[in-house]
Amino acid sequence: MCQLLGMNCNTPTDIVFSFTGFATRGGRTDEHKDGWGIAFFEGNGVRLFVDHQAAVASPIAELIKRYPIKSKNVIAHIRKATQGQVTLENCHPFVRECWGRYWVFAHNGDLKNFDPVLDGPYKPVGNTDSERAFCYLLQKMRRHFGEVLPALAELTAFLKQATAEIAGHGTFNMMLSNGEALFAHCSTKLHYIVRQYPFTTAKLSDEEVSVDFAEVTTPKDRVAVIVTEPLTTNESWTQFQPGELKVFVDGEVCTSCSASG
Amino acid sequence: MCQLLGMNCNTPTDIVFSFTGFATRGGRTDEHKDGWGIAFFEGNGVRLFVDHQAAVASPIAELIKRYPIKSKNVIAHIRKATQGQVTLENCHPFVRECWGRYWVFAHNGDLKNFDPVLDGPYKPVGNTDSERAFCYLLQKMRRHFGEVLPALAELTAFLKQATAEIAGHGTFNMMLSNGEALFAHCSTKLHYIVRQYPFTTAKLSDEEVSVDFAEVTTPKDRVAVIVTEPLTTNESWTQFQPGELKVFVDGEVCTSCSASG
User: What residue stretches are annotated with the Glutamine amidotransferase type-2 domain (chains A, B) (predicted)?
Assistant: First the structure.
């Protein structure tokens, strides 16, 4: 199994603090050492860093921990291989373009007997169940909506059905973002927190690191962090229900997006 | 205008030496400071690094110069914006998936009145003529060959026609790779060199750096480097003819691939 980390904000924010704790699980405080990756949206562009080395040993992970890339939507993944070899093409997140936008996807779990017909424009490059699920999701989305990006409520309603269908094949904790919204589906384990004014100090559980968010934010900032296992010891994380899909926009759960689901 | 750098090898090789000279042109020895990018194939996977900062000022470019990522196919680009803003989504190289493989593309030049109908699966995310040309090329390639990757000679014949058509709209120096072959088309300026046994010492023109390739290679290694302007002062680079498309495979010009063109 793997672990997932996502961030969705109302203002471009760096993920140095959360990624520092998360990356430590990639081979030191936990066993997820079969590669890792992180994707940052910046405007409509995406920076994707993937590495098949353990995150704790990777010079690129070291760079991410030191270089504060600011983004409104980030998805990261540390891998413990269940299906597919430890190669670069099997590292999450995966990126594809649809409707003139990049879509970023990462998955934690294991899908059994999941071999959908992929006869649309999206084909897996590697051999994981995860990339197969991503290609299937995009193919289905494109067939459902045609050639135009739908409104967020429609997209959410569609993704609720599509993720439930895929989750019928096994464990499907996943994150998907198009740079505007971050969708998170929970099969078994996912937690989130919304940090906003008044900000306090947070303490990582995996490293001896604390940060006083009041010192590095403005009162208007709002940041949602979504992760497999809570990253801090002194904050209150909300656990997802199994089968739940949440949509994060501007650093909070978008309730109106889900209403039509 | 921009500059292009490509490398195609018969064994995974690092590009630290060539990239060090090339990146210096990204704001120091030359004016290409509106972003840069580099894509490395590793097996079927791709590592893409893009940055809208000048290459000389970018911490990510610094990492590339120090971290020897080994690859058989690399494409890099430094940008001086002619069309499209200086944003991440406008940085080359661009990556798309087709037929279950990643395709990497970078362009130097300026296309006028180039506004093809893009009604297939590939749409530009940014607003450059270059990304438009890439999407058009993939759309055309997919329509021509259907759902299966063609043999290299067929693909080369197709690309000769398609690149000539696009070059009818302006300057179209470009590099394209699917991880096996590297295609380079010259409208105005492109040079290449094949380094093989017996290896000698090369001296960069943009930095006070030399390398004795005999010390870092085996007699079987062969490396083709393709670049807008020669990178070294003491080697003999071959200039492309205007309108020429060359295919590089295993570190040399593939003459059999071009025969059927």
Answer: 2-251
Chain B residues with CB within 8 Å of chain A CB: 42-52, 59-60, 63, 66-67, 87-91, 95-97, 99-102, 119-126, 142, 147
In a domain, A111, yes or no: yes
| Cβ contact B185:B242 at 8 Å | no
Contacts of A147 in chain B (CB under 8 A): 119
ipTM entry: 0.93
Give the CATH number for residue A184. 3.60.20.10
Q: Is residue A258 part of a domain?
A: no
In a domain, A255, yes or no: no
- Domain that residue B79 falls in: 3-259
pLDDT in tens, A46-76: 999 998 888 778 888 888 888 889 999 999 9
Question: Which of B14, B47, B74 should one mutate to test binding to chain A, selecting the residue with the greatest count of A CBs within 10 A?
Answer: B47
SS3 for A64-133, per residue?
HHHCCCEEEEEEEEECCCCCCCCCHHHCCCEEEEECCEEEEEEEECCECCCCCCCCCCCCCCCCCHHHHH
For residue A260, pLDDT beyond 70: no
- Distance set, CA A244 to CA A49, A183, B248 (Å): 28, 10, 50
CB contact under 8 A, A125 and B50: no
Inform me whether the pLDDT recorded for B233 exceeds 70. Answer: yes
Burial of B112 (0-12, 13-18, 19+ CB in 10 A): exposed
Query: Alpha-carbon torsion B140, B145, B148, B151, what sign?
Result: negative
User: What is the Cα–Cα distance from B1 to B26, expressed in whole angstroms?
Assistant: 12
Residue A252 lies in a domain: no
pLDDT of the residue at B26: 73
Contacts of B121 in chain A (CB under 8 A): 120-121, 142
Helices A129-145 and A152-167, axial angle in degrees (round to 10): 140
* Model pLDDT for residues A159-182, shown as the tens digit of each residue: 999 999 999 999 999 999 999 999
B151, pLDDT greater than 50: yes
Provide the 3-class DSSP secondary structure of residue B224. Answer: strand
Segment A223-246 shows an average pLDDT of 96
